[in-house]
Amino acid sequence: MSEPAAATPSLAEGQGEETAQALEAAQKRIAALERKVATLDKINRALMDQVERSLNTSGDSYSLFMHNLTLQRHVEEQTRELQENNQQLHKALSDLQSATDQMIQSEKLAALGALVAGIAHEVNTPLGIGVTAASHLEESVTTLANAFAAGAMKKSDLTGFLATCQETVQIILGNLARAANLIQSFKKIAVDQSSEAWQVIELEAYLKDIIVSLTPRLKKTHIAVHIHCPANLRFNTMPGALSQVLTNLVGNSLAHAFEEGEKGTITITVKPKKQGIVLIYEDNGKGIAREHLPHIFEPFFTTKRGRGGSGLGLHLVYNIVTRNLDGAITTSSAPGEGVTFTMTLPEGKE
To answer: What is the secondary structure of 317-330 as a DSSP string?
Structure first.
């Protein structure tokens, strides 16, 4: 079960790397076109000024006419080239936006795919234990039945069998409950991530469901997650968008804030405010370099280029918070002091 789970994110990362490189090339092309358009615009204005000066200069009318005609042709040629370059620029910008949108969608699908693979692997453990316990119980039943049929069953056999049954049933029920809890959390989060509907949720329980859905990733680390949210707080929001934001923020912390095997803490705090909430996400990891901080929400900005980083995780967070959830997000960080993302989210209309 673990091999497919590992292969899927690797493939998505490789495709993201190729797309990011192609988009960087497109951005360079756009920058070159912008410089060329600016140069042509200057030439165009200079030629127009020269035409106006020539028209205001006295002299031989024929020579003046020919000179003006030549200048007008230059202006027309430069204007035509300027228009063509403008069209190329607009097309390049349109292609870049389209490719960005496609890659963001791929990022969402890759996250959902990783969630499916991780939960499938995680559910396999309690189900496997349950099957083993049930097999053990079946053997005990067969042994007792054979002893009874042979007339050799003793009171101690029945007593031992009842003890085995009680212990085995507890194991089976406990592991089935664990599997059911994982599946329920996964179902809720997976369905919500594919939906953009507004709905009223019990926020604390939903935040816990999100963290449960991330168990396959978190259990491989020494990172503890703490949630501080008022009990029974009901909030009208887009659950899927909220789930995507926190999933990406946790993924960002695991990828950038902590070294492999390092202990750390992620804290999610909810503070109610008038007509909304303030959602604060913090980790106590290595923090963000001062020169990188202004760029973290930019598309394709990553400090792990070539090591699986697409540079879209925090860009997607920013877009979801500001566009889908109609909120605002700010960041504060310093090297060695962790990072804090503060999101102000208004409550949706009933």
So the answer is: HHHIIIIIS--EEE
